[in-house]
Structures are given as C-alpha cells and as structure tokens.
Amino acid sequence: MSNSLLAVLGCGISFQSADIAQALAYENADMKTDLLPANLRRRTSVATKMAFAAAQRACESAAVKPSELSVIFTSALGEAAITDQLCRDIARQDFPLSPTKFHNSVHNTASGYWSIAVGSQHPAMAMAGYKDGFALALLEAWSQLHTIEKQILLVCYEETPSDLLLPDNQWVACATAFVLSSKGRNGLSLHMPYCITDATKSDQLDDKKHSPALAALPLYDALTQGNSGTIQISPESDQTWFIEVTNAHA
Amino acid sequence: MQAVYITSYVAMTACGQGNEALLKALLEQRSCLKPAQLIQPGFPTYTGEISTPLPNIQGSLKAFDTRNARIALAALDCQKGAFRAGVLSAVESYGASRVGVVIGTSTSGIYETELSYQQYETCGSITEGFDLRRQHAWIATAEFLKKELQLTGPCYAISTACSSSGKAIAAGQRMIASGLCDAVLVGGVDSICHLTIHGFHSLELTAEDPCTPLDQNRQGISLGEGAGLLLLERECREHCQLSLLAYGESSDAHHMTAPHPDGEGSKMAMQSALNRAGLQAEEINYINVHATGTRLNDQSEMRAMASLFEANIPCSATKGITGHTLGAAGAIEAIISLLALEYQFIPGTCGLKNLDTAFKNHVVSETLFDQKMAYVMNNNFGFGGNNVSLIFSRFAAQKEMPHV
C-alpha cells in the first residue's frame, strides 16, 4: 500500500502581495478568482480569496470540474484576520458581534464557501497542523485516495496573523493547491509522505519566522518544473516530513 | 472499508467526570444546563458548563495551558485514568509511531486569546505566557494530547464547526484502513468562550431557556463544553464489544449557516454511511440525531430522516442534557451512542414537551430500556453545510447496567 502512487493532475498558487510573488519569481500568482461571487468577494478574507485563487488555478491546470472534487483545506490559523477583529470587539465589549464576521471566522469558511460556489456536495475537510500542516494534509489526501475518494483538491493557505496574535512575525500570506488522483497516469506522481524523527533536533522552531504555508512551495516548484526526487515538505525539526516525486516522462 | 474497534472511550461533560456521570444523566433524563456562569453575556442563556475543578497543565507542557487543554486532561485522568491506560496499551502493542491523534475543535484555545485581548485593552499588554501555537492554533489541544501521551504518529486537528469531531472519528477509521496507523486517538474538545456565546446570539440562534430540540416551540441552542475521546484500534481487545462500521460525509453546497431546507446533504451523508456499512436503513436500531434546537436545523434533519427511515425507527436528541458542545458534539454524541449500545437503552429527548407535528419519525421522548440493538447511527452537521454520519455496532453481549 505504501508504494502506491498518487497522480498529480494540476497545481495552483496565489500570494497576497504581488511584490513577494514577483520577488520569488512566481507568475500568475495573484488573488484573482472568478469563482468567488461578487457579493462574497467584498466580505471574505485574504485567506479565503487566496485559497480560491490557488484552487481555481489548480483545477484549470488539471482540466477538471471543481464540482467533481472532494476537498481538503489546511491552514494553521485559518481566518486569522477575522478572528483578530472579533477578539478586539469582544475585548471592547462591542456587542452584538457582527453575525457575518462570526460565521466567517470558522475554520471551514474557505472550504464551505468553495463547496457552495462550485456546487460540490462532495466531502469537505478543513484541517490544521502547524509547521507540518501541509505534510499532514498530503497524508490525509493519501489516506482518502486509498480508501474512498478518486480525486481530491488539496489547498494549503495562510494569512499573516496580526501583531497581537504573533508580534513581529514574518509570515508570508500565500496559498498553493494541488489536484490529486488515485488513478496513476503518465506524468508526475507522489509517493506516501513520510516523517523522519530525530530526537536530537528541537521542535522549538521560531514561530515568528516560519510561515506554515511556505512549506508547500518546494513541492509546488518540483511539480511545476517536472522535477523528480525527494522533497522536504515541512521545516527541519524533531519530526521532518518528506515526499518522493516521480516523473514517468523523465 | 474495514471496521475498526473502539477499545476505550471517555466523555467529560457538564454532567460530570467520565462516562458514568453522562450515563446517569441520560438514564435520569436530567438536564445539566444552567444559567451561564463562566461568561455572563448580558442576555439570558443557559449553558452546559463543566463545574467540577479542572486540573492545571503543569511542567514541560505548561505552555499548552488553556481551558480546552484542561478539559482534555481531565478526560484522560477521570475514571482512574482508564482512557490513558488504554492509549498506553495501544502504544505497547503497536509502538508510539503507529498511534495517531485526530482531534476536532471549533474554537480551540480561543478563550485564552480573548482574555489576552481583554488584558491588552485594559493594560496595553497581552497576557504573559500567551502562546499562539500552543494555545490558540487549531492544533493546540491535539498536540497537547500527543505530547502528554508521548505519541509520535501523525497528529492533526479538524475544524469544520459542529461536525469537527464526527469527522475526526471518520478520519481515524481511514488512517487505520489505509495502513497509516494501527490505533488513533480521535475525538473532540471545545470550551465555552465569548466568541461562540456572543456569535450564536448575534445570529439569533441561542435560546433564552434550556434548549428543547425537536419541540414544536424550540427556540434555539444552549451551548455546552466538554471532551469526548475514543481509541480506535485495528485489533480487537479482550472485553471490547464495539466497533465503528462506517461513516458518510457530504457538503450541502447551499448556505454558510443555514442547512438545506430538505436536508439533501445530511441525507447523502446518512445514505453514504449505510452504503459503506452494507446496511439497509431498517437495520439501524437507533439514531442519535444532531438536532441542535434551532428551527431550521431540526426541520432540515428531520426531513432527511423521514425520507430515509421508516417511521418506526427510533431516534432522539441529547443536547438538552449536555448542551451543544460544537466541535466536541460529534465525539460526545458518539459516546452517547456507544453507551446506548453497551447498555441497550435509548436515551430520551430531554426537554421535549410537544414534538413538532411536522416530524414524522419515531422521536423517543422518555428513555427506553431493555432494547435489542446492534447498529446505532450518529449524525452531526456544521456551518458551511458540512455533514457527517457514523454507524457503530455492538457485537457481543450486553453489559450489566451499573448501579447509578
């Protein structure tokens, strides 16, 4: 079982900041998406917009209908900006809270709006790790595709948290998305993600420096450039995650 | 998908510490809802709060100290640490790296974040020791449990509002079926917090009086808090008589907060669980319905129920006893379903006076004893139209009812 592969059908990426996207040499990486209805666009967060933009690009590059996919959305903090606003409102006893802000603060805001916007009744997972959240989402995708699902859209996204939540943090707001299939095709495939435990290494990463969603970029790069090999998918620590990419054309 | 064994489970609820306190409240049909204490929001509302003292998080894990983590620790330690002992024997059997953790939560440690923001508002500085990753982040309580139990298998959190821990239980079955783990600690933990009390009030979904799910005059939800933890295992153990047969998941694709009026999505989740379990609807002996006590939720679910189940199949709602524990509801109600299977009773619907005349299913109002049940279904539905349905089975003799 652990040898069976997942086919990669498509990838997408999105950054909040055009400058950062450019500095990192990503093209077609803005937050534009036409899947988010106009009435929602005005009141949804950067997190949800980025997730939608990356997800739409992944579906387009895979040439699959978004409504045909189960989804896994992963993010360490989810709707961090709206949560920050609500905690401020609560601290100031500015009641009643905004009902829209409240329901837009749940972790499955992005995945919920996605299923509504694309009209998908397939299961929607909203999960979280922290530094290893992307790796664990790939593992969850692997688990789903080896039991019940045929095709999955995986979206990894993260906003920059406010200074009150995480003072002086350097998190880069971005999202990546991948369409994965249990059916092997010619082309790029992923093996089962695996974790190397090394007790001599610390788990005390500097939370301010390590932007959880950036852990997905090496895999995104390898897949979009057609590279095979071993890709690290979480920052180095006492538990570091890797995944093997193979390219049938190579 | 292969069934997995449920070798240990524990609930920490407003009813008290452990399964026996919950069982006692279910048998007596005693509501544990009281006027809100921990947070007094300035409007009348009842909550199911844990009133017994909670243990402190100490030593090397002190950074994880939140009300949520304390509730989780209390669950590990109650019943003389029976659940903790179950996890440790799984570690002995399979190794720590083969035991995973998947915990559902709707608000994680946000109660402490709220206190930190309050201090910032009054004193200009956040709370000393406030730790975003170990307290506020979705993963915080799952990671606390992983470290407290020294597990090294995959560990993540699921947060899909009120379906969170139902989905965590489903994910645990998948992880065993796909070979990733041999045992998985699954469940849910959620504490009372300002965000949910004021948030549900702003949506006009909270009841002034104790909630009355499925009643003609239901007024909304009463929030609760608690933890439900279950140990899923690949191998059966001595005295184990319960298994998770199957789950079904779906999305409504309808609205962020309102369920589909006819319960299309929830019906799909139930049907999918039945298909995977290889069961016909009439083989289900009891359904613990999600029934939060809001007008629309109960109507949507009962329409779905009526379209799937004959009118003679019993169902009931138990949030009138525990309150709606949000991200922990799936796990706590899974445990209620397991208690029902183990002791062969059907809990009544606490608070129900006059069943909504539109509901056609057999809603059990008073607890029924001496049932013959093999299969029980448990439903949970959340914001975003996120649905999950679980089917449990009992495959051994009935346990003797404890003297409670």
Most residues in contact, chain pair and counts: A-B, 62 and 65 residues
CATH topology of chain B: Peroxisomal Thiolase, Chain A, domain 1
Structural class of chain A: alpha+beta
Q: Would you tell me the overall average pLDDT of chain A?
A: 94
The domain count of chain B comes to: 1
Radius of gyration of chain B: 20 Å
| Name of the CATH class of chain A | Alpha Beta
- Ends of chain B: how far apart? 37 Å
In CATH terms, the superfamily of chain A is: Thiolase/Chalcone synthase
CATH topology (level 3) name of chain A: Peroxisomal Thiolase, Chain A, domain 1
User: Regarding CATH, which class of chain B?
Assistant: Alpha Beta
Shape of chain B: globular
Count of helical segments of chain B? Answer: 11
- Main sheet makeup of chain A: 9 strands, mixed
Percent of residues of chain B in helical segments? 25-40%
Taken in chain order, the helices and strands of chain B follow as: EEHEEHEHHHEHEHEEEHEHEHHEEE
Query: How does CATH name the architecture of chain B?
Result: 3-Layer(aba) Sandwich
Poorly predicted regions of chain B are none
Uncertain runs of chain A: none
Q: Tell me the total number of β-strands of chain A.
A: 9
